[in-house]
Design a protein that fits this description.
The structure holds three protein chains of three kinds.
Chain A lengths: L5 E2 L16 E5 L9 H5 L5 E2 L7 E2 L9 H5 L5 E5 L2
Antiparallel strand pairs in A: 2-5, 3-4
Chain B lengths: L16 H13 L3 E5 L3 H6 L11 E3 L5 H14 L7 E7 H6 L2 H10 L4 E6 L25 E2 L2 E2 L8 H6 L5 E6 L3 H12 L5 E6 L3 H4 L6 H10 L6 E4 L2 E5 L7 H5 L12 H18 L9
Parallel strand pairs in B: 1-2, 1-3, 3-4, 4-8, 7-8
Antiparallel strand pairs in B: 5-6, 7-9, 9-10
Helix pairs in contact in B: 1-7, 3-5
Chain C lengths: L1 E5 H12 L3 E4 L6 H12 L6 E4 L3 H13 L4 E5 L1 H6 L1 H9 L5 E6 L13 H5 L6 E4 L3 H15 L8 E6 L7 E5 L3 H7 L16 E2 L8 H30 L7 E4 L6 E5 L3 H14 L4 E6 L1 E3 L3 H8 L4 E6 L9 H10 L8 E6 L9 H10 L8 E2 L13
Helix pairs in contact in C: 1-2, 1-7, 3-5
Classes of the chains: A alpha+beta, B alpha/beta, C alpha/beta.
Chain lengths: 84, 294, 393
């Protein structure tokens, strides 16, 4: 007999951490983006995706609203706006 | 969603420097990787049954034995003849690597196992509530080294882990930072291309424990490097082979960003001591960038 | 093939024939000959294995944990202080359901420091979740290692197993041993096939954090599996008998129990001495017997009950203490019979042979004599009262 022992890979995806956001969320302006990919590099939730200039956006199901993407964007093309 | 081996849905705090770093380490290593993790924030927020954010084989045993368990995994992989194709990464926080797990780490290094050990240095026992560890910097306010009427915080400097590891005679030792993600990934890839024991210590800001805003993680990490308090260096076969050069900023710029240092801002004698630590690092590792010729 | 072998050499030889892929070694008296012999075997190329000289017993256990988790059969050995140092890893291995096989050269526990044989170390770890066998002689020690691998690695069991052999007495004693051949071992023990392991082709997470909503079931399952092991052990022992000829039950062994009026319950090498005394007393017409407990965990409640329910006087020999309470084996034996209509009239507790104090034939005869009287509570045999003092000032 076996009990709870092993987790399946990537099973955390069923835990949507989007509801953690209480204050702010990122807004991807898609105006001056140079596709440097830094927002993708820094996001702790791996929830930013993009391929080419002005195509980057975040996944609201997982984003915790930490704001590091907006802080790192060299073109200030990401703004933190009120969650609402 | 980004293509990654570190899935979303983990329960790290928003803005956690360690989750940023762990993701970058894993994605740099790729899918042919086995992760062995000590108990700590990373293990707890990434593997709460039945959910796991790891898309690679992962094992957690106890608080202090990742280096030893990884030695067993590496020996098994060697026995199976698969050693050339599989990366084995042992991971732990500063407490589990420099304190309680130092013995197991030392044994792994001495025996020459082909393992990369990554120490996520958030400078305290964060998972248990911000208690002081051997890597807590001088004068830091933690719950077991609190600032008070007769104390300016932690009495001791950081245990020199990169030097200690380097003294074991291993082929590659490096320090890295969550604030320099691409540099971290470069170092991981470099380490994994070398046979033998490797060590990378990653400075990982903790918004909760260090008391800073969640969107300050990267800036705080960068300031630690830019003040000279967290030198980014590489050792190869015992000698320093690379360092990140800086135009040094005064330590106060770093300290004032975090609540864990705010008791120092009106104690100039303490600030002087910390500036001395930074200055010594800058001198010792040759961190000061040469003046630009215009 | 029958050979004259030192116990440690015999164990090293059977372990070699079981073909572990990873062996971890940290030295502690009196286990050292086992790991030294295995090191030589590996160095000579007689066994293809990774031999890892670890820096502590905690790491010795952690290394074999990692190896078995990666799907490779592993082995280590320890004793006394080393067993205690790796204690948290042992509980961890059992909870993670990894079939690590380990020899414990049972030895007394510090303080005071003592390197000689008693059962305190292994008995203190009986709660860890490991299957725990105790060998009477070197032949049994060899055979139990083979059964241990087969039992532990069974897909429905997946438990770690500890084979205990009395330190010095069995590790350093020399006896005739019928060593199973490689062909026989290969036939009895198939290669280890892990039902779950660290594999890049099939990733999974081992050792997650389990909160109150899930933890109890993991522990319940571990406990239930020990019951399943109780049922499987005699079957494996019967299969063993078919291949090797030597008869084992695997759980208990009764000696001269049929019409016994006084029976001693014991574990380990003392049983050999007890059997000799029984033979002598039987010639004199005394109806005495022995119930040897081979398997301490899982605890063979039914086998013990059925063997002794009609015996009027029973004495439990403990070679360990549970300081401040009943001797450990004694407490468990009493629990077997409590509330039953058919049970011994008297169950006495004797403490013998701590820290390597010799258990002689006279010691056993004294116990049989004392069994004639009232029920004894933790009666220490061969104690020297002149060494005891009231205070130190």
């Amino acid at each position: 007999m076996f009990g709870p022992l092993i987790c399946k890979p990537g099973s955390s995806r069923s835990n949507k951490t989007g509801p953690w956001r209480t204050e702010s969320r990122p807004k991807f302006l898609k105006k001056n983006c140079i596709a440097c990919n830094m927002c993708v590099v820094v996001c702790p939730e791996s929830c930013i995706k993009g391929e080419g200039k002005n195509t980057y956006d975040f996944d609201p199901d997982y984003c915790k609203g930490c704001g590091n993407c907006a802080a790192i964007c060299p073109k200030k093309d990401i703004e933190m706006v009120k969650e609402g | 969603m980004t293509k990654t081996l570190f899935a979303p849905g983990h329960t790290a705090c928003a803005g956690c420097g360690q989750s940023m770093a762990a993701r970058l380490v894993l994605d740099a290593a790729g899918p042919n990787t086995i992760i062995v993790n000590n108990t700590g924030c990373l293990e707890v927020f990434s593997t709460k049954y039945p959910e796991s954010c790891w898309e690679v084989p992962f094992i957690h045993s106890l608080f202090e034995n990742a280096a030893a368990v990884a030695s067993g995994v590496e020996s098994a992989i060697k026995y199976l003849g698969k050693a050339d194709n599989i990366n084995i990464i042992a991971q732990g926080g500063d407490g589990s690597s420099a304190d309680i797990g130092l013995q197991a780490l030392s044994g792994m290094l001495e025996r020459g196992h082909n393992i990369l050990y990554v120490c996520y240095d958030n400078e305290a026992y964060m998972n248990t509530g911000v208690q002081r560890s051997g890597l807590t910097p001088f004068d830091t306010n933690t719950t077991t080294s609190p600032a008070g009427g007769t104390s300016a915080g932690n009495l001791r400097p950081k245990k020199p882990m990169p030097e200690i590891v380097n003294a074991h005679g291993v082929p590659y030792v490096a320090t890295a930072s969550s604030g320099f993600g691409q540099d971290l990934q470069r170092k991981v890839k470099k380490a994994l291309s070398i046979k033998g024991p490797k060590y990378i210590q990653v400075h990982a800001p903790c918004p909760l424990g260090w008391r800073h805003e969640t969107n300050m993680t990267l800036q705080v990490a960068k300031l630690a490097v830019e003040t000279g308090l967290y030198p980014l260096i590489e050792y190869e076969n015992g000698v320093i082979s690379g360092r990140r050069q800086i135009t040094p900023k005064p330590v106060e710029e770093y300290l004032k960003t975090q609540g864990r240092f705010k008791h120092l801002l009106n104690r100039p004698e303490e600030l002087k001591k910390i500036q001395e630590i930074a200055d010594n690092n800058i001198k010792k590792y040759g961190l000061k960038a040469e003046a630009q010729q215009v | 093939m029958k050979e004259l072998l030192e116990g440690s050499m015999a164990v090293a030889e059977i372990v070699k024939r079981c073909k572990p892929g990873v062996i971890s070694a940290y030295p502690i008296t009196p286990q050292t000959h086992i790991v030294e012999e295995l090191a030589q075997i590996v160095a000579d190329g007689s066994l293809n294995a990774q031999f890892v000289n670890v820096e502590s017993e905690h790491s010795a256990a952690s290394v074999v944990l990692g190896a078995v988790a990666a799907g490779v059969r592993a082995y280590t050995a320890t004793s006394s202080q080393g067993l205690f140092y790796m204690a948290e890893v042992l509980y961890n291995i059992a909870g993670m359901r990894l079939p690590v096989i380990m020899t414990t050269a049972v030895r007394a526990i510090s303080a005071p420091i003592n390197i000689w044989n008693d059962h305190q170390d292994a008995v203190s770890l009986r709660d860890a979740g490991w299957v725990q066998f105790h060998a009477e002689d070197i032949q049994e020690a060899v055979d139990l290692h083979l059964i241990a691998y087969k039992l532990g690695e069974d897909k429905s069991i997946m438990l770690p197993v500890m084979v205990c052999m009395d330190g010095f007495i069995l590790t350093h004693g020399v006896e005739t041993v019928d060593m199973p051949t490689q062909e026989q071992v290969d036939k009895f023990l198939p290669p280890y096939k892990a039902p779950y392991k660290l594999d890049v082709e099939n990733p999974m997470t081992l050792g997650p954090l389990v909160d109150p909503d899930y933890y109890m079931e993991a522990r319940y399952a571990l406990n239930e599996t020990h019951k399943e092991a109780l049922a499987l052990i005699p079957k494996l022992a019967a299969e063993f008998t078919k291949t090797f000829g030597r008869a084992y039950n695997g759980l208990v062994e009764g000696y001269q129990l049929k019409d016994a009026e006084k029976v001693i319950i014991a574990m380990g090498s003392a049983c050999g001495t007890i059997k000799e005394v029984i033979d002598e007393l039987r010639i004199k017409g005394k109806k005495v017997g022995l119930l040897k407990i081979t398997c301490l965990r899982p605890f063979p409640v039914n086998e013990i009950y059925n063997a002794l329910k009609n015996v009027p006087k029973v004495a439990v020999i403990d070679r360990a203490l549970s300081i401040g309470s009943f001797a450990p084996l004694y407490a468990e034996i009493k629990a077997v019979f409590f509330g039953k209509t058919k049970r011994p009239e008297v169950i006495s507790s004797f403490v013998v042979g701590l820290g390597g104090r010799d258990i002689t034939k006279d010691s056993i005869k004294e116990i049989f004599r004392l069994m004639n009287g009232k029920e004894k509570q933790a009666e220490f045999i061969d104690l020297k009262p002149e060494l005891l003092k009231e205070s130190y000032d």
